[in-house]
Structures are given as structure tokens and as C-alpha cells.
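Run: sequence + zinc ion -> complex structure.
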Amino acid sequence: MELHMPDNRLLCIAPLQGTQFILNMHAANQSNANATAGGDSAPEGHTWLEWHHALSHASIQALWIMHQQNLVDGMKIIPSPQNFVCKGCIQGKHTSKPLPCESKNKYKEIGDLVVTDLWGPAPIEGKGRLNYYISFTNAATQYSVITFLKDKSEAFNHYRCYAA
Ligand SMILES: [Zn+2]
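>> structure
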């Protein structure tokens, strides 16, 4: 996977290793350096705002930590304002808090927690006009049941069948 800046400059290359993308900033710094070879004063790295955009709108505090602790390989900062204003963050009105890796609650008994998801209507009508589906996943066993529905109103009946 390649990450690009809004102006199409390559920011970094992130090869998939196992289940994680590994951020390799050196490759991008080199290729950008090559691209600007001959130009002498191109600053190396990116501004805090550029890093904020590149790293999923991470807060300045999070960016600071990543930078201080060398968590992102090759993260070079061009001296720039840290109190930047990001239009995307204002429009989304979200604060950038990392999602917890996993739930703190542990569900041991079957039926402690059932996660359900209703999807539909399908953009194209399927065979038998089954345009919705509902899934029930048991948090304790991770076992899922999926049922196809003609109408959303059937969902509760299917839940009763599932719970029985
Ligand atoms: Zn932002």
C-alpha cells in the first residue's frame, strides 16, 4: 500500500506484514529526494498538519508521541505550527481518540452478549425477494447465524427464533 500527500507526493510505502501495514518512510523520503534532485533546498519531511492528514487525523499529542518515541520509521518533521486547524476534523467534529484494541468486557457464557446486524435493502432484488439479512453473533463463542429476510419487520421474529 502506498500513502500519498494531497499533492500526490509519495508519503510512505506500507507493505503488508501478517495483518499489519508496516510504515516505511525511508523509501518515500528517498524517492522524493530523487524526484527533487538538482533542487537544493527542498526541506526533508512533512509538516505537522501533513502528518496529521497522513496518520488518520491523529491528535497533535499522538503525533508528538509517535515522533518522540520513533514509533513511525522515518517520521521527519518540517518545523511548522502545532496548533494547526484541520478542516476535516472540524467538519467531522470528531476528537481523535484511538479505538480500544479489544473490548474490556469478557463474555464467557453463551448468550451474555449477542451482537446483531441488520442489512438492507439490497440494491438489486435477489431470488425470492430476500432483500435483507440479519446476523446474530454470540460474543462468547463468536458463532454467527445469518438469516435472509424479505422485510425488516421480520427481524424481531427471527431474533425470537434465535434466542429460543
Ligand atoms: Zn484532521
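>> summary
The longest strand covers residues 132-138. The pocket of zinc ion is lined by residues 52, 57, 86, 88-89 (CB under 6 Å).
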